[in-house]
């Protein structure tokens, strides 16, 4: 009987030592920004939470969290409670709290340079001028973390107004299709890694 208890204890310890992967959607908190182009990262987190049966009910100072599994792997879903240009605060908090390397964190972010309906997964790289990625780069001191860019299209003028605007009915239908495909890509990243997901979804 003692051996059984020892086995159960060791099994429990092994599970508790597994570090989760972090899925972090970029966006602005508050009802005012719900449904805006800058918040597609938030939208994707909510889709992932629904697909995985994870509740986003852990409200911390810097992020709203949900913990669970995707494809049998431990994950943390997060929506920063900081504004986009302070996203690095949440990224630093999450990597510190969960003892995660930046490579274990996938950032889900809007991209002006991609047309609506397109997405690109990258293992690292520059910010492309995105203030959220600029903040994460500065706070983590590295650009070596994967990110999934979701196209929101670039207007001819008024970029700030564009990212803070909502979607037309037609655009919303295309966005829904894109986000559902993006959720599958994220699940592939969790289960099989960056290279696999890039090869199948870029």
Explain what you see.
The chain has helices at residues 2-16, 40-52, 87-97, 131-140, 159-163, 169-192, 194-201, and strands at residues 21-25, 58-59, 63-70, 73-80, 105-111, 119-122, 147-151. It has 202 residues and is α/β, with parallel strands linked by helices. It has a single domain, classed as Peptidyl-tRNA hydrolase (Rossmann fold, 3-Layer(aba) Sandwich), CATH 3.40.50.1470. The protein has a 7-stranded mixed β-sheet, sandwiched between helices. A hairpin with a 3-residue loop joins strand 2 (58-59) and strand 3 (63-70). Helix 2 crosses helix 6 (169-192), helix 3 crosses helix 4 (131-140) and helix 6 (169-192) runs antiparallel to helix 7. The protein is globular, with a radius of gyration of 18 Å. The model has no long low-confidence stretch (mean pLDDT 92).
Whole-number total of structural domains: 1
Task: Count up the helices.
Answer: 7
Mean pLDDT over the residues: 92
Low-confidence stretches: none
H/E topology pattern = HEHEEEHEEHEHHH
For the record, the CATH architecture stands as 3-Layer(aba) Sandwich
Structure class: alpha/beta
| Total count of strands | 7
Task: Draw up the topology in text.
Blueprint lengths: L1 H15 L4 E5 L14 H13 L5 E2 L3 E8 L2 E8 L6 H11 L7 E7 L7 E4 L8 H10 L6 E5 L7 H5 L5 H24 L1 H8 L1
Parallel strand pairs: 1-4, 1-5, 5-7
Antiparallel strand pairs: 2-3, 3-4, 6-7
Helix pairs in contact: 2-6, 3-4, 6-7
How would you describe this structure in keywords?
202 residues, alpha/beta, Rossmann fold, 7-stranded mixed sheet, 7 helices, 7 strands, globular
């Amino acid at each position: 009987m003692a051996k059984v208890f020892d086995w159960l204890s060791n099994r429990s310890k092994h599970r508790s030592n597994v570090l989760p992967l972090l899925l972090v959607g970029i966006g602005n908190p508050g009802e005012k920004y719900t449904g805006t182009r800058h918040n597609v990262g938030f939208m994707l987190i909510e889709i992932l939470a629904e697909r995985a049966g994870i509740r986003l009910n852990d409200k911390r100072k810097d992020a709203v969290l949900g913990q669970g599994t995707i494809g049998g792997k431990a994950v943390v879903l997060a929506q920063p409670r900081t504004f986009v240009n302070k996203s690095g605060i949440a990224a630093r908090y999450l990597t510190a709290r969960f003892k995660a390397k930046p490579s274990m964190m996938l950032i889900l972010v809007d991209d002006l340079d991609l047309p609506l309906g397109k997405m690109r997964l990258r293992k690292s790289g520059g910010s492309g001028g995105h203030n959220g990625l600029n903040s994460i780069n500065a706070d983590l001191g590295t650009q070596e973390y994967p990110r999934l860019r979701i196209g929101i299209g670039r207007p001819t003028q008024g970029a700030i107004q564009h990212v803070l605007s909502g979607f037309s009915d037609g655009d919303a239908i295309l966005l829904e299709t894109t986000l559902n495909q993006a959720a599958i890509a994220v699940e592939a990243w969790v289960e099989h890694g960056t290279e696999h997901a890039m090869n199948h979804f870029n």
